[in-house]
Amino acid sequence: MLMGNIGKNREPAAMFKFFQNRASKKKKSKGDMKSELKKTELELDPQTISSETKAKRCPKCNRFFAVQAVICDFDSTLLMLTKNNEVELAKPITGSRLDGNIMEVLCSRRLGKGNLCDVYEAFDTSTQDRYVVKVLSESLVWDSKSAKRFVQGAKAAHSLEHENIVRTHSIGTVRAERGKSQPFVVCEYLEGKQLNELITKESLPSVAEVLDIFDGVCAALEYAHGQEVVHGDLKPTNIFLATTGGNVVPKVSDFAVAERLFRELEWDKVCTMTTSIYGCSTYLAPDFIDARLPTAVSDIYSVGCMMYECLTGAPPFTGGNDFVVILAHRDAPPKPFAADYTPKEVADLVLKALEKDPRKRWQSAGEMGQAIRAAKKKYLTMS
Hints:
elongated, Phosphorylase Kinase, domain 1, six-stranded antiparallel sheet, Transferase(Phosphotransferase), domain 1, four-stranded antiparallel sheet, about 375 residues, 13 strands
């Protein structure tokens, strides 16, 4: 019907012009939009952007654009409005070393986001050495106590120098929203994988590997506890297996930062308002639940939980929510080990670390480390 009307009422030349105009109004392709953006030169140099400037950022390539831009002209990703700290982190940031010297790094890309921190890959602007920058989560910046404890914990971790501990190189702050300061720590960059990546449905680390890994973890804890620094949030994602020269070296990360950050949070507030408590409930010692304060022996309980998971494929206690898991830590015994996979000596040392009564556990990380080395020697002799 429409074509019939067009044919009757228009001359051929007019019809051609009509369809030509329609074709010119077709929706632009991404390629056309990219070309148009390039012509308008909307990309901004982060070095020239002030924290008050409204801008947009590409979440994929981390480039910055004027606020009127819509998509990235490099990868066609939809742009997002920036926050103050994103602008600041796109510039070189400076942190103070333990000796008082200044260290300047430039964040190149975001590696991940956790409950406590945003994690970035960064490079030293002088040496081009690679580092990891951990910035306190923006949601915690508004609590001045949390920011203060983060810095205190970072300073405690800063003093720890051990081959089995991820090294903290410097501490600093960047400007966040509304003039708030957002603290960060600069840590060593490591090649390798986290312990949780070794625990899969398809395979588990061998008994020998588990003993090697946790011999190193206990060495790190023995040293840190000797410096009166407790971790308080040990879990597989905090154990990094660094590959150096063909060898695998276990390294414990986030010492003291997590423990000090929530040390003084009120029990009622944390339990009733967030339906959780500080620390990952899967690896939380029952005495920490009662005393509300992590100790050296509560760290040992967390080590027992991780060893149990490595040897069986699952943590000692699981449940539908944190409360169920917490009650199991306090009241339920862990399921027995498979005798055909885990030697009795290894099972016994893990179960001792998992004792409900802290007085019945290994009383120091050094003592547990000795038991691990003895079990390793016996296991290797038998196999």
